[in-house]
Protein 1
Amino acid sequence: MKKFTCILLFGLCASCGNVSAQNTFRAIVKSAGDDSDALYGAAAVIDTNLTGLADSNGMVVIQNIPNGEKAIEFSYTGYFKKKIKITFPQPANAVTQVKLQTQALEEEDVVIASTRNYQKAEYDPTQVDVMDAGEVEQESHDKPSDVSHILREQPGVQMERTSATDGTMGIRLQGLSSDYVQVLQDGFPLFGGFSNVLGISQIPPLNIQQVEILKGPESTLYGGDAIAGVINLISKQPTETPVYDLMFNGESAQAYDGGFYASQKIKWFAFSLTGTYRYQKQKDWSGYGFTETPLMNRYVISPQLYFDLSKHVRLNIGGSYTHENRVGGSDAWFNGTSDSTNNYYERNISNHASSNFKFEYDFGSKGTLTIKDAFNYFTRSLQLPYYLFAGTQLASASEINYHVAVKKNDVVVGIDVRTDKFTEGADSSLTKRNYNFITYGVFAQYMYHFDTKTTLEAGFRLDYNNVYRVYPLPHVAVLRKWNDIFSTRVNFGMGYKLPTIFQAESEEARFINVLPIATNITPELSFGGTFNWKAQLPNFNGVHITVNQLYFFTEIVHPLIADTASFNCPTGDCIQTSYTNSNGYTQSAGVETGFNLKYRGLETGLTYTLTDSHNKYNDVLGNPVLSINPLTSKHIVSMLAGYSIKNFFIGLDCYYYSPVKLDDGTTGKDIWEVGISTQYAYKFLLVFANLENIADIRQTSYGPVVFPNPTYAHPAFAQIYGPLEGRLFNAGIKIHLGYFAKKKKEPGSGIEKLKEKDD
């Protein structure tokens, strides 16, 4: 009897222990996006035999779980699975928060401002490459001083250095030089002509929100200088959430950047203020006795004011001022050991002041009237030991346009006036190279949406110039979305460019013995187009693959070419440069193939650009002579990869440029550039570090780029086709002071408002 009683008590105790070991698990399952929607029907599984489904609030309840560590797997259609480990027993009424990452590709709607219709990118017939705010922010940390590194990331874009010692540069686009690329900021032509080669290297990325690149002839939209394409830099717009950013950056080559960006919208008033400063010490990377990195001091200040004068009226006024002093030259000159045979230097001092004005009246369904104006004042002096080139450029662009969208029709009509006046300094050359252009234009652009899959765009511009008379410019584009995967775009247009001495050849000659443009010279005319197809493959377990193919073609009829001739002179500068219209053409054609893959936090991109850029001119006997366009790589490969996990990002970029032909008939070397970038964000602080040109590949590794002529007092320079700076490390921080301000939910402003209007 006693034995039976003990067994019974033991069984009861074991039973009680079993009961006490049964636990209940509760979790709320939501999406990992900003909206954090509850995932109704999400499944949770423990040990394959205990399961639960989320209710309409995302709540999952699983009962009868034994004590110990358990692995719980959550799943939901269209989302990545997630596994967590929980040790039981848990505190009473404990609720675990679980967020699942969607497999869908989350992309913000991007509105294109450059094509004037303010269409979302997916509906715009014109082919536009866009870098959104996230990409611009990320890439700007690689080189916080200017936007050149951001632009280099884009397919078909090359940075073209025009000086071996002071670092001036331009942009080559699809095999054509920077003379044919128009750079805009918020649709205003702030950098062109005299200011072209300094403009790109002076624009800070701190206040840039979006970059839009239109490839091919785009003069129909923006007049002259847009033969190869247009690059439009879109500024950040103030929001009700205050933004106060401080940025500090240091480079291993003894260069330092500081900057701030502040913006906020307060009821009907908004403002933004950008300021940057850069100090850069000169450096001779090659050891040949000349600087490849110049000594530089530069500061930029740009205030902008925005007014919502009424429900229908918006006004934006602002300005910008840039001062820069950059000096490159021989080590002997910098060290104070120069003599009559080695005392060379180049000093560039520039001042760029600009203003912008934009007035918008929204008539609601009846359209929008826009009046805008930009004025630019640019001075530059280029001083050598034995020569001074200086001048002043006054330029303006004024425009009135009206945009209305009715059902399937979208129309923009407008008139504009553009001026460009250059006056050479009194102490410069004896033969002044002044000009004064005034161009009046009328333009119209019509877009018709046949249905949700087909859109036609047609435009026409008629320009009248006070010197070169009338130029008609048509444009047509067609978008066809064949299905959810495949779409095509076709663009065709014409362009023109007014002739000035501000060509790459003049910069390379430092404007010495460059003759004025003769009266018999005519503007360059072009025609060309692009054909693009894009395939966005279906999502497969969160893997997103996009293939993009672009074919481009541009022909410039009777292009402006530089003729050089030697003459007897007492110095080493005995080459005279003049410009004339060729009796042939320049043609650039090719294909860009892009492959992009995204999976969770991983994104990789591979782009190959094949370019055939050549000239076909008749010789003195009338025989056609074919030659490759100098400084154009036939093959360019870019490989970009980035991985984000929580607040950390690491990226790798690699570029290959095939050998280029040079003016003297020789061929350059292959160029590889490899860089790695990292950044970490924590609340109000962002820390970044980057290493550029890891392989330390420099053009000067293959020989000098500066030669005595006959001494280093009057040096001669090789054409620059590759990097001159070596391995470079930079690191810095960005402090978001707006983090400490009271957060407000944003209704949207600026371009975001235009999105809402389109919707």
Protein 2
Amino acid sequence: MEYLSDIEIAQRCEMKHISKIAEKAHVDEKYVEQYGRYKAKIDPKLIDDTKKADGKLVLVTAITPTPAGEGKTTTTIGLADGLSRIGKNVTVALREPSLGPVFGVKGGAAGGGYAQVVPMEDINLHFTGDFHAIGAANNLLAAMLDNHIHQGNKLGIDTRKITWRRCVDMNDRQLRNVVDGLGGRVNGVPREDGFDITVASEIMAVFCLATSITDLKERLGRIIVAYNFEGKPVTAGDLNAVGAMTALLKDAIKPNLVQTLEGTPSFVHGGPFANIAHGCNSVIATKMAMKLGDYAVTEAGFGADLGAEKFLDIKCRYAGLNPSAVVVVATVRALKMHGGLAKTELGTENIDALEKGVPNLLRHVSNIKNVYKLPCVVAVNRFPTDTDKEIEFIIEKCKTLGVNVVLSTVWAEGGKGGEELAKEVVNLCEQENDFSFSYELDGSIEEKIEAIVKRVYGGSGISILPNAKKQIDTLKELGMDKLPICVAKTQYSFSDDPSKLGAPENFTVTVKNVKVSAGAGFIVVLTGDIMTMPGLPKVPAAEKIDVDENGVISGLF
């Protein structure tokens, strides 16, 4: 059997013209703006103009990630193709990949094997320019802020209390902390500054939570960029930057339509990281997918303690979404890593390691069922080295929670390998649910953080450092303490310590910094050693990427 890499599989796919995909999704051509043959932007007016009832919303999440891999995006795509194969009208809503991971550790993020969205190279690289527009809007605001100070500082901005940072969609540790404005008076006011990766920018969060151009402008106007000498916030609205920022984003806010390898309509739009932001694709794309499909399948970044928690507690709360079912993705290999095995030992049957690691899966599943009160199924991505005994062990453990386990082979078989999962999801979507949040908004900031740590992470409590306590007190004084919480935390553990695998207990989460994303509408809580600008590894994925004389890319994934 010929082995093909993900990019080779994608390049051999005979894609349908995007007009055919739009037609399949029942999108009238008047809403379609083509970007070549295989990509298009869809006018958000379609959502209000379409009279069809919203489809069922299915969330795909996963166990705590490991180097062994879980395959969440691959499962999302394969499930959608599986639903299509059993005769369902289905659409997909995914995040756009960031160039940081593409050139860093992970490589591409458009699915894998025979469950991918295409054109894979375009989606992983510049796509339709959305991220560039977001970065430009972020940096325009930074430029207008510094220019205001240079031109006389009418607003009385305290340069020691500037909170707005520049951004670039690249892993570049060199830019985490910089001093700029050097070179004399004509070159600006010298100050400490820094860069975040674009997916951590508040503009990205605003972009993904906005429901319209009007809502986008209102949210942009509320962004706090600094504090004045009296300690009062200075916003993008105060700098008169909102109109120009919106102009940069007016096309980007339209969802991007592409297709799976099997021709299922897919919206790929927006992409905040889930460890440092809220980890979900845009509200507009999700609502469009629900409006067009009877089933809309979406995913949220990293494990259920991060992406799913934020999807449910932030995105669903703001957008008024009520999911019908949740899929938790796991692999035997990853669970054995949570049980203490090294990556080199995962190919051998080891029930002891599996028994030590499976509590990680069970905690995620319990959270979905018992905290959020949503129907749930476990999808196990089967590898050739997995034994029947190991699979049966997971099935029996999940039965204790009243949750079924379905084997998924979508990486190797595409939609065919997702048919059983699709049938289980359809059954779950018919169940009534009592969807609940993990905390209520009227609690204090401390109470909401503690609720997430205790109810979702399984920790014993929180420790708030003095600097963070001052920041919380400031937010209370400003009347911003009733917003949802967005925790920035390592993706590799339920705790804030990446070395604590499995389902750790009796741990305390240390809160180091607390800041408000007033435009997005949530409070960001930074824990552990989390960074908003990643760095490249010793051997970046970028070193393996190349282009031949015909423009064909290799090594992307």
Protein 3
Amino acid sequence: MYISEIKIENFRAFGSGERAFVLPLNPGLTALVGENDAGKTAVIDALRYVLGTRDQEMVRVDVTDFHQPPGEERSNQIVIRLTFRGLTAADRGAFAEFLTYEDVGGQLSTALILTWVAKRSSKENTSRRVAPPEWRTGANGDGPLLDFGARSLLTATYLRPLRDAERAMSAGRGSRLSQILQHTKEIKDTGVPFKAETLAGLDPKTLSVLGLGDYASFLFGESEGITATRTKLNESYLAPLSFANDPLQARIGVSGHADDAIRLRQLLEKLEVALAPMADPESAHTRGLGSNNLLFMACELLLLAAESDGFPLLLIEEPEAHLHPQRQLRLMSFLQAQADKPRPDGQSIQIIVTTHSPNLASELPLSHLALIEGGRAFPLSEGKTKLSKSDYRFLERFLDVTKANLFFARAVLIVEGDAENILMPVIAKLLGRDFSEFGVSVVNVGGVGLGRYARVFMREDPVTDGEIGIPVACMTDMDVMPDNAPWIVGILKEGEDVPKRPPSRRQWRVKADFPEGGLEQRRKERTEKASGQRVQTFVADEWTLEFDLAYSGLLPQIWGASVLALDDDKIQEGKTTAIEVIKAAVPELKALREQKLDAATMAAHLYAKFEHEGASKAISAQYLAQRLEASFKDDPTGLRKRLPPYVLKAIAHVTVPFEDLPEDEAADAVEEAV
């Protein structure tokens, strides 16, 4: 049995009707991802309210749990509905009178639908501001009330975000460790009871835990010190206080309860579990918070995996707590394996985690992730997104930890290379659109699969599911050069003609390859590959980022950056200086300017630094970022007039729009740069 759907209405950030929170779930492991305050913890708390938890922690509904829309009155009723499917024969027997029968594809299927309702008290003069909740069954919540005995079969195991693993695993009355061990098969069923008459041939290792307790009590009773003390107490102190026909006799022994279950619990409360180095397995308290957290989770899973009854649900908030990245990856792989492993009763553990860790998010297939945003759930499984089967396979291979930060952002900028990754945050900050202030994550896909990453945020059925409210901008090159560029950048030698074979068979294109509106058609096709809903693709206005920056008005800055990149090794080794490199490059740029070349030709000569001379775009971007900060730190308008329009549009899409600038000012900037 597993939870196949969670529906929450009027609980904290979740509204009702079209704004209700609905999360379909599959068996196994599900990770809830999203930025802070999206509602991930609210989902976990909703499950805790309905199901209860095995640590027997009491959770009470507060008035602040009732949803309050902006500018409106607080809601009067919270409704949480859980749908359980995949019921085993044992489940159907345990919940027989509470089941709902459904027609699924012409076949009769059983489900347990549990509706939890909490209402604000209508009485003004009362200390109880929230009426006791009800647990109702049936498809419409009009079935019989779920009694306490049935509810106890649905309790979940819950691990809080800031958990004290060491304390939970320590000895003490009511310790979590004793609760876990008491229900494990190995503790309950292994070993034999102790009998005094078999003492002669007794092997203590064959005794059960209770048998060991009884054996220890027997040995205490036979101890010379205790025997002598008992004799002295009886003969010297109690005998003088006794009547002739009513002697007072003391017995000294280990305290114990007649009930075996209680005695077992009392024995287990004396145990603790701790990690120790391999070299000294008897040593304790030598591991840190992270390792103790792993121990705690391992013990909880030991119980869940070994049980033959009860609902196998594990809720973990922030499993990455106190763990370094490699441990996080190991943990997620382990949790996935545990969720796939059947228990003795044939069921598998369902695990729901919340996480802020790109490490964990990158380790799981997309089908196991659900993005929580704006009070709504957006499962990323097949059929829910615009991703194709091929996209899912691609992303499982290439969606690594550096790209997984897109699941935790308020806005996402997807770029194709290192230069954009370096420059865009700097440019945005200089323009007063600091990405860190707007919660923008820049995701560098390395020139491969830009549209695939973008389609993660596009819903297959936005009318039903709603749109993900995270603005996503994709920046891509036009990859069409001016007609004279092949000779300037060294693709063709002087005197060579453009090959007559079809352009589709060349790795490069010139504008002449796209007659009669072909360029606009190419731009449209590139834009539409990854645009829709809140996702928008911005195609370079001319060719590539470096070319367009030079073309639009930043030629001197990027020219200097490119020559610095060419001599970067010498600069770093101290063989030359940045000033000397720039001075040496001035004559070349001056000679080109004296030829009165148009902006496109000048930008092509700049791009030859990358295409022909081999300047690193990434290193150039580092130098250009420094030069832009030096030149435009206090002049955002001056920088804006020199930037390509598509760059400005992409920044505006993930932050806020810019005010219009007069067209003549932008034209003046281009003329000035040339």
